[in-house]
Alpha-galactosidase
Amino acid sequence: MKLESGIQQPGFLLALRFLALVLWSFPGARALDNGLAMTPTMGWLHWERFMCNVDCQEEPDSCISEKLFMQMAELMDSDGWKDVGYEYLCIDDCWMAPKRDSKGRLQADPKRFPGGIQGLANYVHSKGLKLGIYADVGNKTCAGFPGSFGYYDIDAQTFADWGVDLLKFDGCHCDSMEHLENGYKHMSLALNRTGRSIVYSCEWPLYMWPFRKPNYTEIRQYCNHWRNFDDVYDSWQSIKNILDWTSSNQKRIVDVAGPGGWNDPDMLVIGNFGLSWDQQVTQMALWAIMAAPLLMSNDLRHISPQAKALLQDKDVIAINQDPVGKQGYRLRKEDNIEVWERPLSDLAWAVAMVNLQEIGGPRFYTISIASLGQGMACIPDCIITQLLPAKRKLGFYQWTSDLKIQINPTGTVLLRLAAN
Ligand code: GLA
């Protein structure tokens, strides 16, 4: 039921709005003190799309080589990615030569990276972008390349000397929990000691969960973001699993996220093969709600205009990058519809409604506005804009009104509720 503008609003509702502002302004846990990732990191990461393809003879266009990264850097600059915030171009596993050099330093595979990582970093910086690299806290990387155990200080310094701006630190091949925890901490301090600003992306909790519950307050003091759950695949099942894990564990992980430290549900696979249009909308909307790092893993040389527009949607990116930095959560699940919400700055809210029913057509869902945002999303009234699957002004709503929307199977409707 829409409300005509101009109706008088009771003062106590405005007072409630003020109270909400105070309540939501409470600072989260202390973050890693490197001044980085004040909003979730945005960029591109090679793993999901290109994996460990080292055969440049047979597959010169998709093997892990400096050429691949230079092409992506060029496109990030020329095709509008950088302009909307995608800044970090990140190398994952399989960039290394099988052995360290005579001084114990990691080295890039000389055939695939003839200019070395420093050369690539210079190129990436010349495009106004930043370079991310990958290493592992254990004895070997997940794909079997040299691990950093015993070399944390040397590796941190090497990355800083090369001009690297982000380190994804994996957790394969660790001998013990102590090794894992101490290793992640040691590398964090070693990176700080280099004096270079290097975003530190961890997988510490993911590798810890099978043994014991991670201490997120501590992890946040060392890492700028941290993976909690399995690797994302290019499939709807994988996206569903990640969302399920996140909502099941939200009591533990949501409050700890904030400027400087974020939960990382893994890469965006939008623009690849496995997700339908509606499922891609769901990933984009929910990654915005979850305040997730937006690291695309796709081929920017071959991407549909539709996927590109979705990934470059400024309104959705603005939700993801909201400066208050509060992660959203699942509010309810009923009859195969999930409602998620996220508090934003200026007392606005983002609300996502996902239709998980995989039979039948689009479904109508009616929600009472008063149930959103702990009752505060629309006090005494608000303007609602649908952002996804397409931008549409829904208009002026009163706290007491209902909102009826239609959601495609496996799709999501993303809304922004803002003060009038
Ligand atoms: C692990 C990580 C992935 C990727 C691969 C590389 O599985 O979780 O994100 O980095 O290793 O081998």
Observations:
- The CA atoms of residues 70 and 295 lie 17 Å apart.
- The chain is about 30% helix and 20% strand.
